UniProtKB/TrEMBL annotation:
It is found in: Secreted, Extracellular space, Apoplast. Residues 1-23 form the signal peptide. Keywords: Apoplast, Copper, Glycoprotein, Lignin degradation, Metal-binding, Oxidoreductase, Repeat, Secreted, Signal. Lignin degradation and detoxification of lignin-derived products. GO terms for molecular function: hydroquinone:oxygen oxidoreductase activity; metal ion binding. The lineage of its organism: Eukaryota, Viridiplantae, Streptophyta, Embryophyta, Tracheophyta. This is Laccase.
Length: 573
């Protein structure tokens, strides 16, 4: 008779072989180049992947290795970020310019290769250079590996819903003009659903400009909602239908029934929608949540249509429209964001780490930078200065000669400093709007300052909004990790009272969190992935202004916790 330990060995070996057999290598080629499209009465040249907007959807299973050959045929520098992918020991493939790589120059190419481990759900990919992600983006859908199921009833169909933003201009020119003048950039001209603005906009009444999807009555559909907009959070509704949230940022949630979803730039939300209404046509619609007072924004609405099979023609020609929240409906936004909880024991669920190694209290918000020489008030920002942004009074400046990851790996000095503080250098009443334009607080130095942490350290960050220009909801994205959202609130974080509100049992798990307007969010993660990982505001209007920092996570004690060398074709600066 075989020994028990022998049986265990062979059982584990067979399990490992089965796991390897179920994994695959999924290969794609991206040709990034100019594309001429018609939108809102104009013909525009945009940068796109493989001639389509949105770009190609990538479908993989958990455990697969993804290989993407990127050929940059555009006139701009380029990188691709795989938003939300952990990149375990493959940080060279993460993609943010000058953080993990130098850009792919026009006429050059680079191959991204990484294995998708311990994740399933809806993520996405996008350009991570300037504002190119306005049109260079697409869905990245991770299904359970063979033999595994969703932790909810199998849907009849799965539908990617990519919410985007459109300018009747070259987006690189829009950004460059703002950076040159120091002013805020021009607002977008439209929002889009799967690349189409919908029929509320000028020159958009032709059905080809409205996303339409035919559904069967009595079926349940999985909507994979992605906010690919650059600068606006978006409310999303479907007329006459409830939605059940089952995942956010590729992490499963307890089912949460709602008639409205809020998605910040960078976030994804998976909802189940059952077509339980009378046969007809029903608009899906998205409109902005704009929390900053007295700040202009694109206050328009995009919409598509769900059309039931066998719907009467009279209803198809006059779809029902949902009543969307007001643009400043913070109670609805907060209700949605604060009511989500993780599915304890679900696939890839991770409990909250209890021992904390690094306590960080980090202020986020807009500020100013000098226009030039003292007394120069000719720039386009408030008081004739330049708009800026910072975290803990450090306005992040990207390196230009080497990426932070390369400097870390090869021990190159002079690229970054490791002096990012664990708390603001000056304590003040952060959300008191009487501090707006406080000249003693509003100017932050430009520096490439990062936080260095040891492998496997648990980091807790309290992200605190500030009112130096104006309070605002900031969607903050952490590369390389998910984090637990322990609590959210308004006003200044109070450790004595607000820690009592922490959910340590089933908090939502995300990679991007909207820090409440005039408030705070508490997050916690374990730094178990060596490399350089940027944390930044996912509003592209704020990232180039400096609302970012990075974590440099040291190698662990074993080869399996040590970052390998870079690939041979990594772009050089």
């Amino acid at each position: 008779m075989a020994r028990p330990e022998s049986l265990i060995f062979w059982a584990l070996a067979l399990a490992a072989l089965s796991s390897m057999a179920s994994a695959a290598i999924v290969e794609h080629t991206f040709h990034v180049q100019n594309l001429t499209v018609n939108r809102l009465c104009q013909r525009r040249v945009i940068t796109a992947v493989n001639g389509i907007l949105p770009g190609p959807a990538i479908h993989v299973q958990e455990g697969d290795t993804l290989v993407v050959h990127v050929f940059n045929k555009s006139p701009y520098n380029l990188t691709i970020h795989w938003h939300g992918i952990f990149q375990l020991l493959s940080g060279w493939a993460d993609g943010p310019e000058y953080i993990t790589q130098c850009p792919i120059r026009p006429g050059s190419s680079y191959t991204y290769k990484f294995t998708i481990t311990g994740q399933e759900g809806t993520l996405w990919w996008h350009a991570h250079v300037q504002w190119l992600r306005a049109t260079v983006h697409g869905a990245l859908i991770i299904r359970p590996r063979a033999g595994h199921k969703y932790p909810f009833p199998k849907p009849h169909r799965e539908i990617p819903i990519i919410l985007g933003e459109w300018w009747n201009a070259n987006v690189i020119d829009v950004e460059n003009q703002a950076l040159a003048t120091g002013a805020a950039p021009n607002n977008s001209d439209a929002y889009t659903i799967n690349g189409r603005p919908g029929n509320l906009y000028n020159c958009s009444q032709n059905p080809k400009f409205t996303y339409t999807y035919k559904v069967q009555q009595g079926k349940t559909y999985l909507l994979r909602i992605i906010n690919a907009a650059l600068n606006n959070q978006l409310f999303f509704k479907v007329a006459g239908h409830k939605m059940t949230v089952v995942a956010v940022d590729a992490s499963y949630t307890n089912p949460y029934v709602t008639d409205v979803v809020l998605v910040a730039p960078g976030q994804t939300t998976d909802v189940l929608l059952t077509t339980d209404q009378a046969p007809g046509a029903y608009y899906m619609a998205a409109s902005p949540y704009a929390s900053a007072p007295n700040v202009s924004f694109d206050n328009t609405t995009t919409r598509g249509i769900f059309i039931y099979e066998n719907a009467p023609s009279a209803t198809v020609s006059a779809p029902r429209m949902p009543a969307l929240p007001a643009f400043n409906d913070t109670p609805t936004a907060h209700k949605f964001n604060s009511n989500l909880t993780s599915l304890v024991g679900g696939p890839h669920w991770v409990p909250v780490p209890r021992h904390i190694d690094e306590h960080m209290y980090v202020t986020v918000g807009l500020g100013l930078a000098p226009c030039g020489a003292p007394g120069n008030n000719s720039c386009g920002g408030p008081n004739g200065q330049r708009l800026s942004a910072s975290m803990n009074n450090a306005s992040f400046q990207f390196p230009t000669t080497l990426s932070i990851l390369q400097a870390f790996f090869f021990n190159v000095r002079g690229i970054y400093t490791t002096d990012f503080p664990n708390k603001p250098p000056v304590a003040f009443d952060y959300t008191n709007q009487n501090n707006s334009m406080n000249q003693a607080l509003i100017f932050a130095p430009k520096k490439t300052s990062v936080k260095k942490v040891k492998y496997n350290a648990t980091v807790e960050m309290i992200l605190q909004d500030t009112s130096l220009i104006a309070v605002e909801n900031h969607p903050m994205h952490l590369h390389g990790y998910n984090f637990h959202v322990l609590a959210q609130g308004f006003g200044n974080f109070n450790p004595k009272t607000d820690r009592k509100k922490f959910n340590l049992v089933n908090p939502q798990i995300r990679n991007t969190i909207g820090v409440p307007v005039g408030g705070w969010a508490a997050i916690r993660f374990q730094a178990n992935n060596p490399g350089a990982w940027i944390v930044h505001c996912h509003l592209d209007v704020h990232l180039p202004l400096g609302l970012a920092t990075a974590f440099v996570v040291e190698n662990g004690p074993t080869p399996s916790s040590t970052l390998p060398p870079p690939p041979s074709d990594l772009p050089t600066c």
